[in-house]
Design goal:
Elements lengths: L5 H5 L4 H5 L3 H7 L27 E2 L5 E2 L2 E12 L4 E6 L9 E5 L3 E8 L8 E3 L20 E7 L5 E6 L6 H6 L4 E6 L1 H4 L9 E9 L12 H6 L5 E4 L2 E2 L1 E6 L2 E8 L6 E5 L5 E6 L2 E9 L1 E4 L4 E7 L8 E6 L14 E10 L24 E6 L6 H4 L19 E3 L4 E7 L7 E5 L5 E6 L15 E4 L4 E7 L5 E7 L2 H5 L3 E6 L1
Parallel strand pairs: 1-14, 2-5, 3-6, 5-10, 11-15, 14-22, 23-25, 24-31
Antiparallel strand pairs: 3-4, 6-8, 7-9, 9-10, 11-12, 12-13, 15-20, 16-19, 16-21, 17-18, 17-20, 21-22, 25-29, 26-28, 26-30, 27-29, 30-31
Bound molecules: copper (II) ion.
C-alpha cells in the first residue's frame, strides 16, 4: 500500500505541522487566498506571474538522433539564461535530451543509464509500446543502474516525447530538466512535402523557476493544488529566445513540456496558426485559428506563414489570457519567443487541403462506458492531507488494478470535472483516442481535438468524453492527470489490458 504524503511534497518536517496540532498555522502561512475559496472547502492556487526576458538568446535546436541511442540521466549544467546553472539532463550540458527521430516500423534500442542519486525511469509519452517498456511508475531504474528500452515503433507519424515517471518524483525530475522529443515519421507524412530541415522547428515550451545557480522545486501546498509554475519561459532549454526566419512557411512542432502551465498560443501579429497535427499525428484537414490552448503533455503541429513580412519584422509567439482556467491559470498574457524575419525568399509552398485519412470511431462500437470523477478534494474527516487529487475518490496505489479492459475492446471513457475548479489534462498510457464530446465549460471540441490524442484538457466545470480503441498491448498501464503535481499527489490510476 502506497501512502501519499503531502508533507513529502512540501519538504516541511512532519513535526512542525502535526506534533503541535498546528495544522492551522500551516493554513495561515500560505499566501492569502491560497487555500480556501468562498465555501471554504475547495482549494486553489494563485497565479504565478511570468517575468518576460529580452529575447536576445538564439533558439537552440536539440540534436537529432536515431532510435539507437544512449541516454544518461545526470546532474549537469546548462546555459539557460546566460548563466550555467545546475539542471538534470539526459546528456551532458543540456537541459533537454536529444530528439529521437525514427520511421514507423523501425526498432528503437535506447540504453538508459541512471546516474542520478535517486530512482528514475523513462516514459515514452504518446508511443503505443508494450507495458514493460512504457516506464510504469514502479518499473524503476535504481541509481547507478541501467535499462535497455527496446521496442518496435508501430504507429503513424507524430510528435511524441519522453520524461521520467518514477512514482512520486516525476514532477520534480521533469521540472529540473529531464525531457526530450521523440518524432515518428512515415510515408503518408513524407508525401505532403511539409516544410522540413531549417524550416521545421521543434519548440519545447516550459516554465521554470530559476535562481542564479539552478532550478528551484519546492511546491507549497497551494502549488500542489495549482501545479508548480515558474516565472521564466524557456523554449528548447533557453529563456525567452529568438529565432531568425525567412519570409516563408514554417512547420512548428510544439510541445507543452511544463508541469502545470497551460498556454493560449497566438502570434503577436494575429497571423493564422494553421493546425495540421496534434498529439497523435496529422489531422484529416488543416484548420486555421488565431489562438489555441495547449495543456501540459499536449502537442501541436502547425504551419505559420512569415511571407509578406519585411526584413527586420519581429513577430512573437505569445500566450494570451483565457477564461475558465481555475484560480491560477489564464490570468496573464505574455510573450514566449520572438521570430525575427531576416531573409526574403520566394515561398512556393501551399498548405495541403487534405492531410491524412482518419476514420471517426462510431460511439456505437463501444462495449463499455467508464466514468471518472476527477475533481476530488478531501478536507473533511480529520484534515487528511494525503491524496488531495483523486480519480473516483481514489489515489494511486500500485498494488491495485482499478480498471480491467479486454484486449481489442473499444470503450468510452468520461472525465467528469463538472464539480471541479482546477484544470486537469488527462493522459492515458498505451493508447491513442478520439475526443467525442465536451459538455459544460467550453462546451465544444477545440480545433486541435479532432484526429488522435493521448492527452485531453478538462477545464473546471467540464465533462469530456473520449473513445479508445484498445489494442493487444497486454499489461498494466497508468492513466493520470498531466499536471505533474496532481499526478505525484496521487491523481493516477491503473488499467490492465488482458
Ligand atoms: Cu490535475
Amino acid at each position: 500500500m502506497k501512502r501519499r504524503n503531502f508533507i513529502r511534497n512540501t519538504g516541511i518536517g512532519t513535526g512542525s505541522i502535526f506534533a503541535g496540532g498546528s495544522f492551522f498555522s500551516l493554513l495561515a502561512s500560505c499566501t492569502k487566498g491560497d487555500m480556501m475559496n468562498n465555501n471554504g472547502m475547495n482549494m486553489g492556487g494563485q497565479p504565478f506571474p511570468i517575468t518576460e526576458g529580452n529575447f536576445s538568446r538564439l533558439l537552440p535546436i536539440p540534436n537529432t538522433v536515431t532510435g539507437n541511442v544512449s541516454l544518461t540521466a545526470q546532474a549537469t549544467t546548462s546555459n539557460v539564461n546566460g548563466n550555467n546553472i545546475s539542471v538534470l539532463g539526459y546528456q551532458a550540458n543540456g537541459i533537454l535530451g536529444p530528439t529521437i527521430r525514427v520511421n514507423n516500423g523501425t526498432n528503437a534500442n535506447i540504453s538508459f543509464q541512471n546516474n542520478l542519486s535517486e530512482k528514475s525511469n523513462i516514459h515514452w509519452h504518446g508511443l503505443k509500446i508494450p507495458a514493460n517498456m512504457d516506464g510504469h511508475p514502479e518499473d524503476i531504474v535504481n541509481p547507478g543502474s541501467s535499462f535497455n528500452y527496446q521496442f518496435t515503433v508501430n504507429q503513424r507519424a507524430g510528435l511524441n516525447w519522453y520524461h521520467p515517471h518514477p512514482d512520486g518524483a516525476t514532477a520534480r525530475q521533469a521540472f529540473q530538466g529531464l525531457a526530450g522529443l521523440f518524432m515518428v515519421n512515415d510515408s503518408e507524412e513524407a508525401a505532403l512535402n511539409l516544410p522540413s530541415g531549417n524550416f521545421e522547428l521543434p519548440l519545447v515550451i516550459q516554465d521554470k523557476r530559476l535562481t542564479s545557480s539552478g532550478i528551484t522545486y519546492n511546491p507549497s501546498m497551494g502549488e500542489v493544488m495549482s501545479g508548480y509554475m515558474g516565472e521564466t519561459i524557456i523554449v528548447n532549454g533557453v529563456a525567452f529566445p529568438f529565432a531568425e526566419v525567412a519570409s516563408r512557411f514554417y512547420r512548428l512542432r510544439i510541445l507543452n513540456g511544463s508541469n502545470a502551465r497551460i498556454y493560449n498560443l497566438a502570434f503577436s501579429n494575429n497571423t493564422d496558426i494553421i493546425i495540421i497535427g496534434n498529439d497523435g499525428g496529422l489531422l484529416k484537414n488543416p484548420i486555421a485559428v488565431k489562438n489555441i490552448l495547449l495543456a501540459p503533455g499536449e502537442r501541436l503541429d502547425v504551419l505559420v506563414n512569415f511571407a509578406g513580412a519585411t526584413i527586420g519584422t519581429e513577430i512573437f509567439l505569445e500566450s494570451r489570457v483565457f477564461d475558465n482556467g481555475g484560480s491560477a491559470q489564464g490570468k496573464q498574457g505574455f510573450k514566449i519567443m520572438k521570430f525575427k524575419v531576416t531573409q526574403s525568399v520566394n515561398n512556393s509552398f501551399t498548405v495541403p487541403v487534405s492531410l491524412s485519412s482518419i476514420n471517426a470511431i462510431p460511439p456505437s462500437s463501444s462495449s463499455k462506458t467508464r466514468t471518472f470523477v476527477i475533481n476530488a478534494m478531501q478536507m473533511s474527516n480529520g484534515m487528511n492531507m494525503t491524496g488531495i487529487h483523486r480519480i473516483n475518490d481514489k489515489v494511486y496505489d500500485s498494488s491495485r488494478i482499478d480498471e480491467r479492459v479486454a484486449a481489442n475492446a473499444t470503450e468510452i471513457w468520461v472525465f467528469d470535472n463538472s464539480q471541479g475548479d482546477e484544470p486537469h489534462p488527462m493522459h492515458l498510457h498505451g493508447v491513442h483516442f478520439q475526443v467525442l464530446e465536451r459538455k459544460g465549460g467550453r462546451a465544444k471540441l477545440t480545433a486541435s481535438e479532432s484526429g488522435w490524442k493521448d492527452t485531453v484538457l478538462v477545464l473546471p466545470r467540464e465533462t469530456v468524453k473520449i473513445i479508445i480503441p484498445f489494442a493487444t498491448l497486454e499489461g498494466v498501464f497508468v492513466f493520470h492527470c498531466h499536471n505533474l503535481e496532481h499526478e505525484d499527489d496521487g491523481m493516477m490510476l491503473q488499467y490492465q489490458l488482458a
